[in-house]
Specification:
With 249 residues, the protein is an alpha/beta fold. The chain has 9 helices and 9 strands. Bound molecules: zinc ion.
Length: 249
Amino acid sequence: MNASQSSALAVSLHDVSPFTREACDVMLRDLKSAGVGVTSLLVIPNHHRRGAVGADANFQSWLRDKQADGHEVVLHGFYHWRDARGGGGLTRRLVTEHYTRGEGEFYDLDYAEARRRLREGRRMLEDAGCELRGFIAPAWLLGAEAECAARDEKFDYTTRLGGVLDLRTGIRTASQSLVYSVSSRWRRIVSLGWNFLWSRRLRSCPLVRLGLHPPDWQHEKIRAQALCLAGGAAADRRVIRYRDWVEGT
Ligand SMILES: [Zn+2]
């Protein structure tokens, strides 16, 4: 085995829910054509309080099918919505309102509430037949108390923008995730350049990560580049789920 064969590519599909299922199906089909047959599916238990997985038998069946095909289900927030709170400094307001557009749900949750949502989310997805190992916070924004809660709820790992953290051992793998911001034209232009450059920098990294969101596929240049980067990496790396990375398989 040469060095490139021992390295890995992990593609995650964010914001999977009953609202995005059809879009996710198209993305998974395209990724498979590009050589990415397995992904980590980041599932929201109750998307914006209006998409409870527990109340949607068809979606639950779809999730089980994806898992049977080799995809991994990962808990991704609970509501994917951060309730507006007063106070907070400028940095907090910028992060929670501008950067994430109000979706940084686990950025500043206290320990008890984080644990409650993690437990309820796990229950809802496990009742649907999913086998959970990981928790990934919306927009990768995981506060210190919420990280403790995830550890105490026995999640094996989490990821942030800059790496993968094994919650059992504390071992962190540094690897910047490729990700697109598509909400405006200038953001899309910057994203295309940024991800091109990062994909080159990551060539020597043991783990390459690509995080995709359903709106990415509404923009043909973004879709084309994402598939090109994924396909290029998949050509000489093992394609894995995050759980495989922390399990060392
Ligand atoms: Zn998300």
